[in-house]
C-alpha cells in the first residue's frame, strides 16, 4: 500500500518549522518521514533546516529532474526532492512543508494528499514575523496581505484540515498527531 503525502501549508511565521521540529520524533515513530526542502536561501539564513543552494544550483537540480515538486515564492525557489516518490511507493507517509500557491499543482500530481493548513491569529502572526527579524516592515506587510488572499479560500476548501497554532505548541502537535491517526474522520 502506498504511503500518504501530508502537505503542510500556512503563512510564513505561523510556526511550521517549530511544529515540524516538535513533531519529528513522534512522527518518525509512526513511520512518517519529514522532508528537508531545498531553498535558494543561504545556509546561514535564520529559519528552517533546509538545504540552501544558489539559484544556479537550484536550476541545475531542477533541470536534472531532482525535484518531485518545485515553486517560487517571496523571491526564493523551493524544491521537494524526488526521493519522496520512492518513500511513498514503499508505503511511508511523507510530510512536506509546502506552498499554498502551489497547492493546485501538488493536488494534480498527488490527488490523495492530505492538506494541513496551519493557521494563526493575524496579530500573533505579525508579532512572530517582527520578532524573527528576517524581513523589513514593508516585507512583513506584503506577507500579511498575501496571507489574507489565501486564508479565506483555503479555509473553505474541501479536504483541508485546519490546525490552529495561536496557542501552545504542544497542543498543536497533539492535534496534528491525532489527525494523522488512521481512520481519523477529519483526515481520512
Automatic annotation (TrEMBL):
The lineage of its organism: Bacteria, Pseudomonadati, Pseudomonadota, Gammaproteobacteria, Pseudomonadales. One of its GO terms (biological process) is organic phosphonate metabolic process. The gene is phnN. This is Ribose 1,5-bisphosphate phosphokinase PhnN. Keywords: ATP-binding, Nucleotide-binding, Transferase. It catalyses: alpha-D-ribose 1,5-bisphosphate + ATP = 5-phospho-alpha-D-ribose 1-diphosphate + ADP. HAMAP family: PhnN. Catalyzes the phosphorylation of ribose 1,5-bisphosphate to 5-phospho-D-ribosyl alpha-1-diphosphate (PRPP). Belongs to the ribose 1,5-bisphosphokinase family. ATP binds at residues 10-17. It is an enzyme of class 2 (transferase). It comes from the Bacteria. InterPro entries: GK/Ca_channel_bsu, P-loop_NTPase, PhnN. Its EC number is 2.7.4.23. One of its GO terms (molecular function) is ATP binding. Residues 2-184 form the Guanylate kinase/L-type calcium channel beta subunit domain. Pathway: Metabolic intermediate biosynthesis; 5-phospho-alpha-D-ribose 1-diphosphate biosynthesis; 5-phospho-alpha-D-ribose 1-diphosphate from D-ribose 5-phosphate (route II): step 3/3.
